């Protein structure tokens, strides 16, 4: 197989499956900046040339090394030289992942008009793509993110499927010991747990909400609550949404950004009672009554309801998501 036919992810996966002898030889080849011959590798490793040749051929077939003919020097056939095409350390993928996330968040912090919203949107796209890969594997069986064949409408099995999925994505999800249909996320792969980045946590929220939506076909409400003493640790509570069950409390999800979040002392709020406001204007009045400092912020903010621009007369449906966007950067 040609070197150009291997994806980077495939190469990293192949590195993790190497035998100790193959990994040792790949590491030896990686120490060279110019193509190295079997004879040189045999001398450096102390192995017989035939053993080195057998191992290097296996590495070549996996796409982990390339080979080329070296200039002829003296009699005989020209020798083949080898160079690595993949990192030898399996942990390199994790390093690359962390660097990519950190660079993305730094760019958002400097260039995005609303870094928190941008981070959330990236997370939602990420979660949607990850869930889509899982759905694409339904007909072919398990893949790297897993597939369990969970049926819609079974909240217990859906919760367990979501737990497995989020754990494989690096969130260390466990079932809450006492609350049904509730998960505890104990890790966030996007940030340092000692000094958590608020944008990374917003990125996580986008991923989690989109994964839950995709896994349940939008049939449940999700509430994410951070531990005030440890923002890395969050609880994700699922509640089944039923149009026929009038006893099930209606919910309204409100997201606050920038000065709005400071005024109400939180970035997310879920309202669930029998007297939810019917319009955006009624919601604003209710928030101002509860948080007087929110009044001047509300006067200059823009509002979105389910990703659409909204005004005070916009009707709020069950499960609607309201976003409060104050001006950023003086604009």
What radius of gyration results from the CA coordinates? 27 Å
Domain tally: 3
Q: What's the helix-strand series?
A: HHHHEEHHHEEHEEEHEHHEEE
Structural class: alpha+beta
Mean pLDDT: 83
Number of strands: 11
Task: Based on the coordinates given, report the CATH architecture of the largest domain.
Answer: 2-Layer Sandwich
Gap from first CA to last CA? 55 Å
User: Can you give the helix content as a percent range?
Assistant: 40-55%
Low-confidence stretches: 138-152
Count helical runs. Answer: 11
Strand percent estimate: 15-25%
Find the CATH topology of the largest domain.
Answer: Muramoyl-pentapeptide Carboxypeptidase, domain 2
CATH class of the largest domain: Alpha Beta
Biggest beta-sheet profile = 5 strands, mixed
CATH superfamily of the largest domain: Trafficking protein particle complex subunit 3
Strand arrangement across the biggest beta sheet: 8-7-11-9-10
Q: What's the shape? A: elongated
């Amino acid at each position: 197989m040609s070197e150009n036919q291997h994806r980077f992810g495939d190469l990293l996966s192949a590195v993790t499956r190497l035998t100790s002898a193959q990994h040792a030889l790949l590491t030896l080849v990686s120490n060279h900046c110019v193509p190295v011959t079997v004879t040189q590798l045999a001398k450096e490793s102390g192995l017989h040339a035939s053993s080195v040749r057998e191992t290097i051929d296996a590495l070549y077939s996996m796409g982990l090394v390339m080979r080329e003919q070296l200039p002829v020097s003296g009699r005989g056939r020209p020798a083949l030289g080898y160079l690595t095409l993949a990192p030898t350390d399996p942990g390199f993928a994790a390093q690359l992942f962390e660097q990519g996330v950190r660079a993305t968040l730094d760019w958002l912090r400097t260039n995005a008009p609303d870094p928190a919203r941008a981070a959330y949107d990236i997370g939602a796209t990420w979660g949607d793509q990850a869930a889509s890969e899982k759905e694409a594997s339904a007909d072919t069986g398990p893949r790297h993110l897993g597939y369990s064949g969970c049926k819609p409408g079974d909240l217990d099995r859906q919760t367990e499927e979501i737990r497995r999925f989020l754990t494989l994505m690096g969130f260390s999800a466990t079932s809450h010991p006492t609350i049904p249909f509730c998960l505890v996320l104990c890790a966030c792969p996007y940030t340092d747990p000692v000094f958590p980045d608020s944008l990374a946590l917003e990125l996580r929220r986008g991923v989690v909400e989109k994964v839950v939506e995709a896994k349940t076909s939008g049939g449940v409400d999700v509430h994410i609550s951070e531990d005030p003493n440890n923002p890395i640790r969050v609880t994700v509570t699922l509640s089944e949404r039923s149009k026929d069950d009038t006893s099930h409390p209606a919910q309204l999800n409100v997201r606050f950004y920038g000065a709005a979040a400071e005024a109400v002392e939180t970035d997310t709020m879920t309202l669930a009672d029998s007297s939810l406001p019917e319009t955006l204007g009624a919601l604003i009045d209710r928030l101002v009554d509860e948080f007087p400092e929110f009044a001047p912020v509300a006067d200059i903010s823009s509002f979105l309801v389910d990703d659409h621009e909204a005004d005070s007369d916009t009707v709020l449906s069950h499960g609607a998501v309201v976003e409060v966007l104050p001006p950023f950067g003086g604009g």
